[in-house]
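[Solved] Which block belongs to which protein?

Original post:
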Amino acid sequence: MPLFQKVYDTGRFPISVLALESVLVATVGIGFGFVLFPSEASIIGVFLIAMGQSGTVRVLLDRNRDDIWSGKVPPTRANMQLALRLLVLFVGALATYAVATLVVPLDRVQDLFGRQLGGFAGQSLTTLRFGNFGAILGHNMLVMLACLLFSLAYRHGGMLLVLAWNASVWGSVFAYIARTAVLQSGGSLAGYVVRSMICILPHLLLEALGYVLIAMAGVFASKALVKYRLESDALHTVIRAAAGIAAVALCCVFLAALTESFVAQTLVAWLF
């Protein structure tokens, strides 16, 4: 966002500034979707968020490239810093969608977030079926493949679309489940949200990190394939690095599936 450009021009990317930008971009995107395209707000908001974060992510990618090729920062550390900052942008969008779902009039939620809610409407965490390990892992692998393909084809734009969509789904679904469950059974909404977060955050953050990493791998590979000749050492270096990042992403998604299939269901049984 131009509002934060002066901060980024200094070469500094404070986590707090990135988080604030993510929340503001998501708020504006959701708001414009509501006002200008109410019948398609659930889709338009995602596109506006991806567009709004595009400039920041491009700057982050350029900084990552310069740090690595100049030798100022070890590649592993530079990539970890980039992944953390992308994860902050993701979590900011997710939190904004959750808050929006909690504060929008209940009779409008289905209209405005219908595509995100899908078949989850009307459920509670106790009735929600997390699925077995194989099914969860298979679904997550499909999402990873989509992240990779979008990132290869559209680079950071494709990466942002997939991440913004997943942030909108997770934020809307769990906030709506909390809201409707409290209406049906009573109790504190804040308490339900906190208990829900305890149950879902462990696997959610692991999944999100996996998607961020595989998207980074796709962007790196796509840019290298265009910039370098096939026989060049630089291309081979980037492809090896991208493959290593993809391997870590696979580990994250595998651990997320394990956590969701066993830990999440146990926590739900304990807390609800």
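(Second protein starts here: sequence line, then its structure tokens.)
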Amino acid sequence: MKLNDKQKIAVAALIFLVVLGGLGALNYMKIQERSKLLAEIERFQKEEKAATEKIKQIPDLREKRAKLINIIDQYAEILPKEEHVQHDTFVNIIDGYRGETKILIQKAEYVKPKEEDKKSAQENFVRHRYRFKLLGTVPDFIEFVNKIENHTRFLKVDAIKIKPVGSADDAGGDDLSDKADEEELARATESVKEIELTVSTYTYFKGPDKKI
């Protein structure tokens, strides 16, 4: 079938429009792809910048880490060794501080850590607590506690309960500050009391050195 001039022009225009549309669609796809690539490049550049900044901080972090290790080592030096917090050894250490006092250790027991204490404990530090039930006068007990607190290794008095001999646990201890009469106060301090003393300390386990 032969086409006249107008039909030829119409067909040519249609082909041109189809080609133009195809090129437009192709360009749009390329532009979209280019935008994605530019976004990826920008993201990589930000990550590279962040990584570079972190790399720059490594010398300072190493220095801070070395200082922290030194501080921890200093603390560890004043903590008892693992063998010194074992029941018999620890009780013997505390017993040695009775000295010239008439304090009598009736019972010594290891206090198991509570679940919240386990969760909040710092890594590599282990807390050890002992509860002692004693008999003695207040002046002797004060001397006894002073010796404990001056121990060459770290020891901390956590709690003290003082009550008359044979009183119920829920009766509470003597409040000596409420006794106005000095003679009564003297008699109260010189009489033998039931005393509960809780002492704690820590041991430190130095794990393998980890490099940054």
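Accepted answer:
You had them paired correctly. Confirming on the second one: Residues 5-77 form the longest helix (73 residues).
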